[in-house]
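Sample 1 of the test manifest.
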Amino acid sequence: MHDILQVVKNKNGKIKPTHILYKSNLSHQMMEEYMKELIEKKFIVENSEKTGRTYSITQKGINFLDKYGLIKEFTSSFGLD
Amino acid sequence: MALIHLVPNWFLRFDIGLEILFAIVTFVVAYYSYKIYKLSDQEESRILSIAFLSISISYLIKAVVNLLIISGVDDKISNVSFSNIQTLQNVGIFANGAYIILFTIGLVLLAYMTFKIRSLRALSLLLATNVFVMFLSQNKILSFYLLSSLLTIYISAHYYLEYIKKNNYKNLALFFAFIFLFFSGIIFIFSKIYYISYVIGHLLELASYLIILLILISAIRKK
Protein backbone atom coordinates (compact mmCIF):
# COMPACT_ATOMS: atom_id res chain seq x y z
CA MET A 1 0.00 0.00 0.00
CA HIS A 2 2.84 2.33 0.93
CA ASP A 3 4.62 1.55 -2.35
CA ILE A 4 1.53 2.31 -4.45
CA LEU A 5 1.00 5.57 -2.61
CA GLN A 6 4.64 6.46 -3.16
CA VAL A 7 4.25 5.74 -6.90
CA VAL A 8 1.18 8.03 -7.07
CA LYS A 9 3.05 10.77 -5.20
CA ASN A 10 6.15 10.47 -7.38
CA LYS A 11 4.01 11.03 -10.49
CA ASN A 12 3.18 14.51 -9.24
CA GLY A 13 0.15 13.11 -7.48
CA LYS A 14 -1.70 11.99 -10.60
CA ILE A 15 -1.32 8.63 -12.31
CA LYS A 16 -3.11 6.16 -14.62
CA PRO A 17 -3.86 2.62 -13.38
CA THR A 18 -1.61 1.07 -16.05
CA HIS A 19 1.35 3.06 -14.73
CA ILE A 20 0.65 1.88 -11.19
CA LEU A 21 0.48 -1.71 -12.43
CA TYR A 22 3.78 -1.32 -14.23
CA LYS A 23 5.59 0.41 -11.34
CA SER A 24 4.20 -1.66 -8.48
CA ASN A 25 4.80 -5.14 -9.93
CA LEU A 26 1.41 -6.39 -8.73
CA SER A 27 -1.26 -8.46 -10.42
CA HIS A 28 -4.26 -6.51 -11.72
CA GLN A 29 -6.55 -8.02 -9.11
CA MET A 30 -4.15 -7.26 -6.25
CA MET A 31 -3.71 -3.71 -7.47
CA GLU A 32 -7.48 -3.17 -7.67
CA GLU A 33 -7.84 -4.41 -4.09
CA TYR A 34 -5.16 -2.07 -2.82
CA MET A 35 -6.61 0.84 -4.79
CA LYS A 36 -10.04 0.15 -3.30
CA GLU A 37 -8.55 0.19 0.21
CA LEU A 38 -6.62 3.39 -0.49
CA ILE A 39 -9.80 5.08 -1.74
CA GLU A 40 -11.77 3.84 1.28
CA LYS A 41 -9.10 5.25 3.58
CA LYS A 42 -9.24 8.55 1.62
CA PHE A 43 -5.52 8.38 0.77
CA ILE A 44 -6.22 8.71 -2.96
CA VAL A 45 -9.14 9.84 -5.10
CA GLU A 46 -10.27 8.48 -8.44
CA ASN A 47 -10.78 10.97 -11.26
CA SER A 48 -12.75 10.19 -14.40
CA GLU A 49 -11.27 12.00 -17.38
CA LYS A 50 -11.76 11.86 -21.14
CA THR A 51 -8.56 9.87 -21.50
CA GLY A 52 -9.62 7.40 -18.80
CA ARG A 53 -9.29 6.89 -15.07
CA THR A 54 -6.54 8.59 -13.08
CA TYR A 55 -5.71 8.59 -9.41
CA SER A 56 -4.41 11.45 -7.30
CA ILE A 57 -3.02 11.55 -3.82
CA THR A 58 -4.89 13.43 -1.06
CA GLN A 59 -3.43 15.45 1.81
CA LYS A 60 -4.23 12.51 4.08
CA GLY A 61 -2.19 10.27 1.78
CA ILE A 62 0.74 12.71 1.88
CA ASN A 63 0.55 12.81 5.70
CA PHE A 64 0.56 9.01 5.74
CA LEU A 65 3.73 8.90 3.64
CA ASP A 66 5.41 11.60 5.76
CA LYS A 67 4.70 9.71 8.99
CA TYR A 68 5.14 6.24 7.53
CA GLY A 69 8.29 5.57 9.60
CA LEU A 70 6.43 6.33 12.83
CA ILE A 71 3.38 4.30 11.78
CA LYS A 72 5.51 1.30 10.75
CA GLU A 73 7.60 1.39 13.92
CA PHE A 74 4.53 1.77 16.16
CA THR A 75 2.49 -0.96 14.50
CA SER A 76 5.36 -3.47 14.44
CA SER A 77 6.31 -2.71 18.06
CA PHE A 78 2.75 -3.25 19.30
CA GLY A 79 2.16 -6.25 17.03
CA LEU A 80 -0.54 -4.52 14.99
CA ASP A 81 0.82 -5.28 11.53
CA MET B 1 -18.57 -5.63 45.92
CA ALA B 2 -15.46 -4.44 47.70
CA LEU B 3 -11.82 -4.78 46.80
CA ILE B 4 -10.32 -5.72 50.13
CA HIS B 5 -6.55 -5.74 50.42
CA LEU B 6 -4.17 -5.86 53.34
CA VAL B 7 -1.91 -2.86 52.76
CA PRO B 8 1.29 -2.19 54.71
CA ASN B 9 1.24 1.25 56.34
CA TRP B 10 4.40 2.36 54.58
CA PHE B 11 2.82 1.58 51.20
CA LEU B 12 -0.32 3.69 51.77
CA ARG B 13 -0.45 6.66 49.35
CA PHE B 14 2.51 5.16 47.45
CA ASP B 15 0.02 2.79 45.81
CA ILE B 16 -2.11 5.76 44.76
CA GLY B 17 0.93 7.40 43.19
CA LEU B 18 1.64 4.21 41.25
CA GLU B 19 -1.98 3.93 40.06
CA ILE B 20 -1.86 7.54 38.82
CA LEU B 21 1.40 6.70 37.02
CA PHE B 22 -0.24 3.65 35.38
CA ALA B 23 -3.17 5.85 34.35
CA ILE B 24 -0.77 8.35 32.74
CA VAL B 25 1.30 5.69 30.92
CA THR B 26 -1.78 3.94 29.53
CA PHE B 27 -3.29 7.29 28.54
CA VAL B 28 -0.13 8.20 26.59
CA VAL B 29 -0.27 4.84 24.77
CA ALA B 30 -3.96 5.46 24.01
CA TYR B 31 -3.15 8.95 22.69
CA TYR B 32 -0.39 7.74 20.36
CA SER B 33 -2.48 4.78 19.16
CA TYR B 34 -5.26 7.22 18.29
CA LYS B 35 -2.75 9.44 16.48
CA ILE B 36 -1.57 6.42 14.46
CA TYR B 37 -5.20 5.52 13.74
CA LYS B 38 -5.90 9.03 12.42
CA LEU B 39 -2.84 8.82 10.16
CA SER B 40 -3.26 5.26 8.92
CA ASP B 41 -6.97 4.48 9.33
CA GLN B 42 -5.85 1.15 10.73
CA GLU B 43 -8.60 -0.50 12.78
CA GLU B 44 -6.14 -2.26 15.13
CA SER B 45 -4.71 1.10 16.24
CA ARG B 46 -8.21 2.34 17.07
CA ILE B 47 -8.93 -0.78 19.15
CA LEU B 48 -5.57 -0.43 20.93
CA SER B 49 -6.40 3.22 21.66
CA ILE B 50 -9.83 2.46 23.15
CA ALA B 51 -8.40 -0.47 25.14
CA PHE B 52 -5.66 1.61 26.74
CA LEU B 53 -8.02 4.53 27.35
CA SER B 54 -10.37 2.18 29.16
CA ILE B 55 -7.51 0.83 31.30
CA SER B 56 -6.30 4.38 31.96
CA ILE B 57 -9.72 5.51 33.24
CA SER B 58 -9.99 2.37 35.36
CA TYR B 59 -6.69 3.16 37.12
CA LEU B 60 -7.75 6.75 37.63
CA ILE B 61 -10.97 5.57 39.29
CA LYS B 62 -8.99 3.11 41.45
CA ALA B 63 -6.63 5.89 42.53
CA VAL B 64 -9.52 8.22 43.41
CA VAL B 65 -11.29 5.46 45.38
CA ASN B 66 -8.12 4.67 47.33
CA LEU B 67 -7.63 8.37 48.02
CA LEU B 68 -11.24 8.64 49.23
CA ILE B 69 -10.79 5.63 51.48
CA ILE B 70 -7.61 7.00 53.01
CA SER B 71 -9.14 10.45 53.56
CA GLY B 72 -12.29 8.70 54.84
CA VAL B 73 -10.25 6.73 57.35
CA ASP B 74 -8.47 9.90 58.47
CA ASP B 75 -11.82 11.64 58.76
CA LYS B 76 -13.29 8.69 60.66
CA ILE B 77 -10.59 9.01 63.29
CA SER B 78 -11.44 12.66 63.94
CA ASN B 79 -15.19 12.58 63.31
CA VAL B 80 -17.05 9.28 63.39
CA SER B 81 -20.28 9.59 61.40
CA PHE B 82 -22.33 6.61 60.25
CA SER B 83 -23.76 8.41 57.21
CA ASN B 84 -20.25 9.39 56.10
CA ILE B 85 -19.05 5.81 56.31
CA GLN B 86 -22.18 4.60 54.50
CA THR B 87 -21.72 7.15 51.70
CA LEU B 88 -18.06 6.23 51.43
CA GLN B 89 -18.99 2.56 51.23
CA ASN B 90 -21.56 3.20 48.47
CA VAL B 91 -19.12 5.30 46.45
CA GLY B 92 -16.50 2.58 46.94
CA ILE B 93 -18.83 -0.17 45.67
CA PHE B 94 -19.87 1.86 42.62
CA ALA B 95 -16.31 2.94 41.80
CA ASN B 96 -14.89 -0.57 42.25
CA GLY B 97 -17.56 -1.86 39.86
CA ALA B 98 -16.58 0.82 37.33
CA TYR B 99 -12.87 -0.01 37.77
CA ILE B 100 -13.48 -3.73 37.23
CA ILE B 101 -15.70 -3.21 34.17
CA LEU B 102 -13.37 -0.70 32.50
CA PHE B 103 -10.24 -2.76 33.16
CA THR B 104 -11.98 -5.87 31.81
CA ILE B 105 -13.20 -3.98 28.71
CA GLY B 106 -9.61 -2.84 28.10
CA LEU B 107 -8.20 -6.36 28.33
CA VAL B 108 -11.03 -7.88 26.25
CA LEU B 109 -10.35 -5.31 23.51
CA LEU B 110 -6.62 -6.07 23.61
CA ALA B 111 -7.31 -9.82 23.38
CA TYR B 112 -9.80 -9.22 20.54
CA MET B 113 -7.22 -7.09 18.70
CA THR B 114 -4.68 -9.92 18.82
CA PHE B 115 -7.06 -12.32 17.02
CA LYS B 116 -6.96 -10.04 13.95
CA ILE B 117 -10.58 -10.77 13.10
CA ARG B 118 -13.19 -8.07 12.69
CA SER B 119 -16.50 -9.26 14.03
CA LEU B 120 -18.76 -7.26 16.29
CA ARG B 121 -20.51 -10.50 17.28
CA ALA B 122 -17.25 -12.06 18.45
CA LEU B 123 -16.33 -8.92 20.40
CA SER B 124 -19.75 -8.63 22.06
CA LEU B 125 -19.63 -12.33 22.97
CA LEU B 126 -16.21 -11.90 24.59
CA LEU B 127 -17.37 -8.82 26.50
CA ALA B 128 -20.71 -10.27 27.58
CA THR B 129 -19.16 -13.56 28.72
CA ASN B 130 -16.55 -11.82 30.84
CA VAL B 131 -18.92 -9.29 32.39
CA PHE B 132 -21.70 -11.82 33.09
CA VAL B 133 -19.37 -14.42 34.59
CA MET B 134 -17.95 -11.77 36.90
CA PHE B 135 -21.24 -10.29 38.02
CA LEU B 136 -23.06 -13.60 38.42
CA SER B 137 -20.20 -15.08 40.38
CA GLN B 138 -20.43 -15.23 44.20
CA ASN B 139 -16.86 -14.04 44.54
CA LYS B 140 -16.73 -11.23 41.99
CA ILE B 141 -13.28 -10.02 42.89
CA LEU B 142 -11.74 -13.48 42.55
CA SER B 143 -13.53 -13.90 39.19
CA PHE B 144 -12.21 -10.52 38.07
CA TYR B 145 -8.60 -11.39 38.89
CA LEU B 146 -8.87 -14.85 37.35
CA LEU B 147 -10.54 -13.61 34.15
CA SER B 148 -8.11 -10.73 33.73
CA SER B 149 -5.21 -13.14 34.24
CA LEU B 150 -6.66 -15.44 31.59
CA LEU B 151 -6.99 -12.52 29.16
CA THR B 152 -3.42 -11.36 29.81
CA ILE B 153 -2.17 -14.90 29.07
CA TYR B 154 -3.85 -14.74 25.64
CA ILE B 155 -2.38 -11.29 24.98
CA SER B 156 1.09 -12.48 26.09
CA ALA B 157 0.83 -15.51 23.79
CA HIS B 158 0.12 -13.18 20.87
CA TYR B 159 3.27 -11.17 21.52
CA TYR B 160 5.35 -14.31 21.95
CA LEU B 161 4.08 -15.69 18.62
CA GLU B 162 4.78 -12.32 16.97
CA TYR B 163 8.31 -12.46 18.37
CA ILE B 164 8.84 -15.98 16.97
CA LYS B 165 7.45 -14.90 13.59
CA LYS B 166 9.23 -11.56 13.21
CA ASN B 167 12.13 -11.81 15.63
CA ASN B 168 11.29 -8.31 16.91
CA TYR B 169 12.68 -7.91 20.44
CA LYS B 170 9.97 -5.32 21.22
CA ASN B 171 7.34 -8.03 20.84
CA LEU B 172 9.31 -10.13 23.31
CA ALA B 173 9.43 -7.17 25.72
CA LEU B 174 5.64 -6.78 25.42
CA PHE B 175 5.30 -10.50 26.08
CA PHE B 176 7.12 -9.98 29.39
CA ALA B 177 5.04 -6.85 30.13
CA PHE B 178 1.81 -8.84 29.89
CA ILE B 179 3.32 -11.80 31.76
CA PHE B 180 4.10 -9.39 34.63
CA LEU B 181 0.51 -8.16 34.46
CA PHE B 182 -0.65 -11.79 34.57
CA PHE B 183 1.38 -12.52 37.71
CA SER B 184 0.24 -9.27 39.33
CA GLY B 185 -3.39 -10.38 38.86
CA ILE B 186 -2.64 -13.76 40.44
CA ILE B 187 -0.71 -12.21 43.33
CA PHE B 188 -3.48 -9.65 44.03
CA ILE B 189 -5.78 -12.60 44.83
CA PHE B 190 -3.67 -13.26 47.91
CA SER B 191 -3.62 -9.64 49.08
CA LYS B 192 -6.58 -10.42 51.34
CA ILE B 193 -4.29 -12.69 53.33
CA TYR B 194 -0.76 -11.35 52.90
CA TYR B 195 0.31 -7.70 53.18
CA ILE B 196 3.23 -8.21 50.82
CA SER B 197 1.01 -9.46 47.95
CA TYR B 198 -0.44 -5.99 47.47
CA VAL B 199 3.05 -4.50 47.22
CA ILE B 200 4.40 -7.20 44.89
CA GLY B 201 1.28 -6.91 42.70
CA HIS B 202 1.87 -3.18 42.31
CA LEU B 203 5.59 -3.61 41.63
CA LEU B 204 4.84 -6.16 38.90
CA GLU B 205 2.34 -3.74 37.37
CA LEU B 206 5.00 -1.02 37.55
CA ALA B 207 7.49 -3.25 35.70
CA SER B 208 4.84 -4.03 33.08
CA TYR B 209 3.88 -0.41 32.39
CA LEU B 210 7.50 0.75 32.39
CA ILE B 211 8.23 -1.78 29.63
CA ILE B 212 5.18 -0.59 27.65
CA LEU B 213 6.32 3.03 28.11
CA LEU B 214 9.86 2.22 26.94
CA ILE B 215 8.50 0.45 23.85
CA LEU B 216 6.34 3.47 23.08
CA ILE B 217 9.24 5.92 23.53
CA SER B 218 11.49 3.84 21.29
CA ALA B 219 8.76 3.65 18.60
CA ILE B 220 8.20 7.42 18.66
CA ARG B 221 11.93 8.21 18.61
CA LYS B 222 12.58 6.15 15.48
CA LYS B 223 10.25 8.21 13.30
